[in-house]
Specification:
- With 326 residues, the chain is α+β, with helices and mostly antiparallel strands.
- The chain has two domains: 124 residues, Beta-lactamase (3-Layer(aba) Sandwich); 174 residues, 2-Layer Sandwich (Beta-Lactamase).
- The protein is built from ten helices and nine strands.
- A five-stranded antiparallel beta sheet has the order 4-3-9-8-7, sandwiched between helices. A two-stranded antiparallel ribbon has the order 1-2. It has a two-stranded antiparallel sheet with strand order 5-6.
- Strand 7 and strand 8 form a beta hairpin.
- Helix 1 runs antiparallel to helix 5, helix 3 crosses helix 6 and helix 4 packs across helix 5.
- It starts with a helix and ends with a helix.
């Protein structure tokens, strides 16, 4: 069994056990990103806004973002002093105009279920040349692939039953179903998965590498390429973000954003008590009226409910500043 599939099996068996990661990375982009005004197509889509070209700007947006950054830093510092959390990373970006800020945005965390998004993107990448792949049937049979079995309490998938690929992708993303995740992981050419990870700058899992290997800024890039429709087609990018908008997790970004705001996001949770601590992350696009924004928050501490409240508080503070201007 390839090392990547061994990691998938270990991830499912352990429920929330951390993933390893390959030692090599794609070269990260510089933190000194130029200010820009982005010209977009607009119209006809609910979740994407295809990027047509980019021009230099005067940086006004960056000056405005200094306000929420300062207030978010105060929240983070307070919780660190109180011992509520051991690590917090934040990455925020105005998706249409480009200004951004980060707080400890290169700190490393265990991704957990966040890795279900690049796996989905590997299938979308394949569908560019073979649209039928999303309708192709896949048999759910963990034993057939050396994956752990699941009780009826853990998944609604029926062993031996056949499911369209897109149905499994939907279950994996919306419900964070590990049965669908494992099945999809073993049903795609691993060279494609590795290529997509490399293209997007996300490390490809390896059994001999550390638990913590992903940061908020790198992971946030997945949502940027979907919003910009710059990696897969506009239709497929729209389809992916629509799925992510139905993620069943309301205790992070959703809890802190204005009621009724559309949010396309994915969460990851690690509840094992070891040196890496418990971790909770929530990353995605918050569609503030007239100001769609990318927000990714990763946390580590001793108590998941506390981490959940910190993500909510940070999101709420940013929402007051950003949504309150419209």
């Amino acid at each position: 069994m390839p090392r990547y599939l061994q990691i998938v099996s270990a991830f499912i068996i352990g429920g929330l056990i951390g993933w390893g990661v390959a030692a090599s990375w794609s070269s990260p982009r510089s933190d000194d990103e130029p200010n820009s005004t982005e010209i977009r197509q607009g119209g006809g889509y609910d979740f994407v806004n295809p990027l047509l070209e980019c021009e230099s700007s005067d940086g006004t947006g960056d000056r405005l973002l200094s306000i929420p950054k300062r207030e978010v830093q105060e929240i983070v510092d307070r919780h660190l002093r109180n011992g509520d959390v051991t690590h917090v990373s934040v990455y925020f970006r105005d998706l249409d105009n480009g200004p951004w800020f980060g707080i400890d945005e290169r700190a490393q965390f265990a991704p957990q279920s966040l890795l279900k998004v690049p796996l989905m993107m590997a299938y979308l990448y394949t569908a560019e040349d073979d649209p039928g792949v999303l309708d192709a049937p896949i048999v759910f049979d963990p034993a057939l692939h050396g994956l752990p079995s699941f009780s009826s309490d853990e998944t609604l998938l029926v062993v031996g039953a056949s499911y369209p690929t897109w149905d499994l992708i939907e279950r994996m993303v919306v419900d964070s179903d590990n049965g669908a995740f494992g099945t999809l992981s073993v049903s795609i050419d691993q060279a494609i998965v590795e290529e997509v990870h490399r293209d997007l700058g996300i490390a490809y899992p390896d059994v001999d590498s550390p638990t913590n290997f992903i940061d908020v800024k790198t992971y946030a890039s997945l949502y940027r390429v979907l919003y910009n429709a710059s990696y897969v087609s506009r239709g497929l990018s729209e389809r992916a973000l629509e799925l992510l908008s139905r993620t069943r997790f309301a205790d992070g970004l959703v809890a802190g954003a204005p009621t009724g705001t559309r949010i396309a996001h994915k969460y990851g949770i690690r509840e094992i008590d070891d040196a890496s601590g418990q971790q909770l992350h929530d990353c995605g696009i918050i569609y503030y009226t007239g100001n769609p924004s990318l927000l990714c928050i990763m946390t580590q501490g001793d108590d998941i409910p506390t981490l959940r409240d910190i993500i909510r508080e940070i999101t709420e503070r940013i929402s007051i500043e950003i949504a309150g201007t419209h």
